[in-house]
Amino acid sequence: MSITLAGKTALITGASSGIGAATARTLSEAGANVVLTGRRIEQLESLAESLPNEALAVRLDVTDRASVAAAVAATVEKFGGVDILVNNAGIMLSGMVEGADVEEWTRMVETNLLGSLYLVHETLPSILSRKGAIVQVSSTSGRFARMGGAVYAATKFGVTAFAEALRQEVTSRGVRVITVEPGFTETELTSHITNPAMQDMAKGLAASMRLLRPEDVAEAIRYSVTQPEHVSVSEILIRPTDEV
Ligand code: NDP
What we know:
Radius of gyration: 17 Å
Number of domains: 1
CATH architecture: 3-Layer(aba) Sandwich
Number of strands: 7
Structural class: alpha/beta
Order of helices and strands: EHEHEHEHEHEHHE
Distance between the termini: 33 Å
CATH class: Alpha Beta
Bound molecules: NADPH dihydro-nicotinamide-adenine-dinucleotide phosphate
CATH topology: Rossmann fold
């Protein structure tokens, strides 16, 4: 039996494109009020206008703690609190370790790992008081590290590890923590890769299979947050069937 999200508030990071945008639509269709966050406010505002339930667009840079605090405060002011956090914002700047641009490592760690920690820190009091849920969007790269994705994988292993420890800490207080690990999904993610060889490899891989659509991942997230209170879906690994 799946539970309606009517009256619940979901804060989604990285809602301006890809998996986050699809998740915002899916959770809104399931009845939730949604808070759409990201740096590209125009995309968030136009998405908000197209959703069936109440939606608030808030500019948020997850690497900036003050920005995180302000976005959560805006959510509390508008909706009274946070029931569901979808910690989804992320970047993948693939490349070999040798000769890497260390600045790209810093951006990945600050966005994928530290950013998601800041969001949990800021929303946890509200989520605990409402017996809510935290969805950590990790990756298959949080389970299997591959050459060319060392630092991205390191951040996603970190996201997954944090989620399991957090789950143990809060599950007895009624908060569900869910790790979602998608495989290759058709989004803007690979467009930010600066290394030409890595960019070509990503394009070749994308052309070789039927990729997941953002809506496929959003549906997995919807499933995980609409279970009865005694059911904790702790982990979902979802891959393209064609991905060997
Ligand atoms: P997109 O590039 O389409 O979306 C990434 C989102 O993250 C954007 O909305 C972007 O918003 C946001 N973002 C990036 N940096 C920041 C920042 N500093 N502050 C706030 N928001 C930020 O890619 P996906 O939808 O694919 O990525 C979503 C998540 O899914 C990521 O965590 C990614 O690692 C994960 N994932 C993706 C897979 C794939 O194959 N696509 C596979 C496995 C996991 P804005 O630019 O507006 O700030």
